[in-house]
Design brief:
12 helices, alpha/beta, nine-stranded mixed beta sheet, about 300 residues, two-stranded antiparallel ribbon, 11 strands, about 50% helix
Length: about 300
């Protein structure tokens, strides 16, 4: 089997996996679609397994496809590491795949990424947003080189390097704050608890804190982005726990106001990598530069 598999087939496979489409994978790789189809068919023929379910719109990996995925990413990473070792250059190049919380990325990464990409012009970044468990799975299954998460993962196969401590604040609209100052926590009984959903660590910790304070919330609303959560809170729809860095400008402008908490909530955001993964030079440069960036701020 091994002698029939080439790196280009795995590159095509991971592109289809990420794009969930043969045509989009072809566009990304600069191939015609028939080439992508041929590469996937070759892998399926050689492995004796169907790797993708063909759907009316796009594709989804089969169980065999999901089993192949971490090995495909390791194969590509190993090839890049070999290329780096043989290359006669000190300039890192290649793709770095990163998983990060959207709330962390929008607050902390734009300035860093601008400087990093100007310095390392041969490096390309592929960033996948997700929640804590999503990012942990990406790194554990070798679908991402690095991940940024709000707490150490409880896994023996991953390494955690602290980056920055983040304070979580409970915010509301000015009208709700006024009612709170007059009536206390009962003024929020008809308000919604707005968050990223039950899988979000901010939601879980915030919900538990409110319960411990014996504060009742009428309903829970889930939205997929930090900006949408902030906008709905500022309209008076409810309250939300968000990282302090996400709401600094809104609090300064009086659009959102913090509510007092019985206990301060903080998280140590850090970078995770797989113990057995040899990072390519581009990923090593990203890890080193990101660590230095947070040490300097």
């Amino acid at each position: 089997m091994l002698e029939s598999w080439e790196g280009r087939f795995f590159i095509t496979f991971t592109a289809v996996l990420e794009e969930k489409s043969f045509s989009r994978a072809a566009d990304r790789l600069g191939y015609v679609q028939s080439t992508v189809t041929s590469h996937i068919r070759h892998l399926e023929t050689t492995s004796g397994k169907k790797l993708f379910h063909r759907l009316p719109r796009g594709v989804e990996p089969t169980e065999a496809g999901m089993q192949l995925a971490p090995f495909a990413y390791q194969f590509i990473s190993l090839g890049q590491s070999l290329q780096d070792a043989l290359a006669d250059t000190d300039s890192p190049s290649g793709i770095v795949r990163i998983g990060a919380l959207e709330s962390f990325a929008v607050s902390h990464l734009p300035h860093f990424l601008n400087g990093f990409l100007k310095r390392f012009t041969k490096v390309k970044l592929h960033m996948a947003p997700g929640l804590h468990n999503d990012i942990t799975d990406l790194v554990a299954n070798h679908r991402a080189d690095l991940g940024i998460v709000p707490k150490p993962p409880e896994r023996d196969d991953l390494l955690f390097s602290p980056l920055v401590e983040e304070k979580l604040v409970l915010v509301c609209a000015p009208a709700l704050k006024e009612g709170f100052e007059q009536q206390g926590w009962r003024s929020l009984d008809d308000s919604a608890f707005i968050s990223f959903g039950d899988q979000c660590i901010y939601h879980v910790k915030g919900r538990d804190l409110l319960r411990n304070m014996e504060i009742g919330i009428a309903e829970q609303l889930s939205f997929p982005s930090t900006e949408l959560i902030k906008q709905t809170v500022s309209c008076g729809m409810g309250i939300a726990f968000l990282p302090e860095s996400n709401v600094e400008s809104e609090v300064a402008a009086g659009k959102l106001l913090p509510l007092p908490l019985a206990h301060e909530m903080t998280f140590i955001h850090g970078m995770i990598t797989h113990k057995s993964r040899e990072l390519n030079t581009a990923a090593k440069a990203f890890r080193q530069q990101l660590t230095a960036y947070f040490e300097s701020v």
